[in-house]
Amino acid sequence: MIYLDNGATSYPKPPEVSETIMDVTVNYCANPGRAGHFMAARTAQEIFKTRLSVARLFNIENPGRIVFTKNCTESINMALKGVLLPGDHVITTSMEHNSVLRPLHSLKQNGVKVSTVKCDKAGRLSVNDVKKEITPRTRLIVMTAASNVTGTKMPVEETGRLALRNGILFMVDGAQGAGHMDIDVKKQHIDILAAPGHKGLLGPQGTGFLYVREGIYMAPFLDGGTGSRSKDLEQPVDFPEGYEAGTVNSPGIIALGAAVRVISKLGIDVIEEHERRLTEKLQRGLSEIPGIELYGPEDTYEKTAVVAMNIHGIDCEEVADVFNNRYGIAVRAGFHCSGAAHETIGTEKTGCVRLCPSIYTTEKEIEETIAAAAEIAAGR
Amino acid sequence: MIYLDNGATSYPKPPEVSETIMDVTVNYCANPGRAGHFMAARTAQEIFKTRLSVARLFNIENPGRIVFTKNCTESINMALKGVLLPGDHVITTSMEHNSVLRPLHSLKQNGVKVSTVKCDKAGRLSVNDVKKEITPRTRLIVMTAASNVTGTKMPVEETGRLALRNGILFMVDGAQGAGHMDIDVKKQHIDILAAPGHKGLLGPQGTGFLYVREGIYMAPFLDGGTGSRSKDLEQPVDFPEGYEAGTVNSPGIIALGAAVRVISKLGIDVIEEHERRLTEKLQRGLSEIPGIELYGPEDTYEKTAVVAMNIHGIDCEEVADVFNNRYGIAVRAGFHCSGAAHETIGTEKTGCVRLCPSIYTTEKEIEETIAAAAEIAAGR
Q1: Using CB atoms and an 8 Å cut-off, which of residues 90-119 of chain B contact chain A?
Q2: Which reaction(s) are listed as its catalytic activity (chains A, B) (predicted)?
Q3: Would you state the pLDDT for residue B229?
Q4: Could you tell me if B197 and B124 are in contact, meaning their C-beta atoms sit under 8 angstroms apart?
Q5: pLDDT < 50 positions in chain B
């Protein structure tokens, strides 16, 4: 199978991931932070190692401000619902995933006001348009680092600077950015960063994290056992344990650490350039096929490894089915949990086919994909 | 290491668990319910198989009403916060874990009223005492199947019947019961069941589930992508996908299925009797040692595989340390995220040492543990 559904979850994982999960599960996995015995202590230690590795990759000063979650959606819910108060105004963009737009929508019922800045047809955001939306009640700007539909990179650093100068919190959804492009919370003035473990970070499913800068109060999301202050009925707000109630996914988190170290060793710039070259090749190849329409920026330096396309006259779901059934190529068709993004790029009626290479995708796989697309478009 | 911390997380797991995680991770793990390609379809299929296996074990008619979560704490939060409304009255017990008491405490701020029925010194609940607390506003009775501090089994079926007759919802926290004793949602009239995957069910950490009977409305807990109704900003309330926003822990859930099938094959009654015999042996052995005090029911038919104890004159944390450092026996000391339970049994000042055998614990390990306890108590 040629796997081009890395925007959903990355595959394959580096061997370090399955090896680590196996090692943890078979050899020592206990409950970290609960008991003092060797196995619990070792589990806690290894989880802390992941915290350090994640902190290093994103230039986070205090690893204790990293909360492990089950996925990016939980991270985003935890942050938005824990930080925003009635009366707060939030600015977001029209390229967001439902994991941002749906929590914001539900927060409207709590008196949170939301402005959605419209991006251009390629999914590009103008920071000036964001600036125009700022009011004295604006408390947060939240946006993705890169679109999950078109791969369009957002002006993260510029927006971060704008937020900083206006005393507004800046939150980034790293679902499609983490592991694919440089995310540096200091340089980019990111106050809150949510990310999945199982996409660009190459870790296992069931993992994600949320970074919240020191000084930001976040109401607890899950109430429950924290292994601390057991006699207190009030949920502790100590980082990170107050936000990691219940037993965490130790094998997953520890394996995520292994994956992040693989990434740090390879280098984000090397991964980014490999993926860009493949994306360039794929995009160029597809653009030469009659009947194929591409979405998002033409310039592959403006995007991550996501190619969105349609074949004239064929339903996107059918294209995906043929890719899969006839060629063994895994892609994702439809609306990608991002109705607003499809509206922005003009595919709100058709949806589109999404192809996402990863660091492990080869040139040959891209060539085969282009050849397959040409055959499908030619109706052969 | 002699691992007697199974109340926190079970260890070892059946080999099927690590084998399955490995197989899923290495061979086909994609994002279920998002794309139609072979890998995504296979992942979805295998997750559905887990739903079926869990449904069978707990006699749940509609597997679609099982929501997979990251742990029991998330399951409980999802249910309590999604089902209870301002003005509702809830009855719970003094033996609950903080994963029940803390969410209830935070719901008080939303106008939910809570009555806590005091259990006796052994942690036993009188159904009559529950009955006395019922008011016309009582909407839910929530309680654990068995205490995580003393193992005391709660009168689940009797309470279920009481709730049914009074038109009250009945919710069970299966954290210490699932996999250790018979839980049958039909026979016991359980409307909502929360359980972890990584304790008695022998699955991996990062898994849990919530069952909600058909006909009960639950507000969504996490808002985000569901792979369905992508253009809708309102979180879908379709079971299960509306409650499984974001990418699920596929390897974990599929491995949980493998674990549950191991349990079904062994038989809950066989597991329960094995654990009861070990608990009996452990309890009897410890009770004969001068200076050791035991908590909870003497009759091991009244409890799951949890033994709570203290050694006169030695701090419980120190006892646990000696168990670990000198004998390689893993136990858990302290308050076990259950301050109220410790108050009930009279250990609110001292805490206690908890020893939990599992289906994989041997008689020999129990004998060694008793011998170690005798040496510690004798001050040798």
Answers
A1: 97-99, 101-103, 105-106
A2: (sulfur carrier)-H + L-cysteine = (sulfur carrier)-SH + L-alanine
A3: 84
A4: no
A5: none
Put simply, the answer to whether A38 touches B222 (Cβ < 8 Å) is no
Residue A380: the pLDDT is 75
The pLDDT of residue B345? 96
Measured CA to CA, the distance from residue A27 to residue A34 in angstroms comes to 18
Bridge-based pairing of strands B192-196 and B208-212 is antiparallel
Q: What is the pLDDT of residue A234?
A: 92
From CA B329, how far away is CA B331, in angstroms rounded?
6
Domains of chain B: 2-9+267-377 (3.90.1150.10), 15-266 (3.40.640.10)
Taking CA–CA distances from A332, the nearest residue in chain B reads: B35
Chain B residues in contact with A342 by the CB 8 A cut-off are 230-231
Q: Do A25 and B204 touch (CB under 8 A)?
A: yes
- pLDDT, residue A34, reads 79
Contact call for A320 and B247, based on CB within 8 A? no
- How far is residue B313's CA from residue B53's CA, in Å, rounded to a whole number? 48
Amino acid at the residue B195: A
* Residues contacting residue B222 through CB under 8 Å, at least 6 positions apart: A73, A74, A77, B243, B245, B246
Dihedral angle sign, alpha carbons of residues A360, A363, A364, A368? positive
Q: What distance in Å separates residue B230's CA from the closest CA in chain A?
A: 4
Residue B181's alpha-carbon distances to A293, B14, B142, B299, B302, in angstroms, are 59, 18, 18, 15, 11
Element spanning B103, H or E = helix B98-108
Exposed e or buried b per residue across A17-55, where buried means at least 16 C-beta atoms within 10 angstroms of its C-beta: bbebbbbbbeebbbbbbbbbbebbbbbbebbbbbbebbb
Cβ <8 Å between B252 and A206: yes
**Three-state DSSP class for residue A272:** helix
pLDDT in tens, A183-226: 999 999 999 999 999 999 999 999 999 999 999 999 999 999 98
Binned at pLDDT 50, 70 and 90, residue A228 comes out as confident
pLDDT (0 to 100) of residue A218: 98
Question: What is the percent of chain A with per-residue pLDDT over 70, rounded to a whole number?
Answer: 100
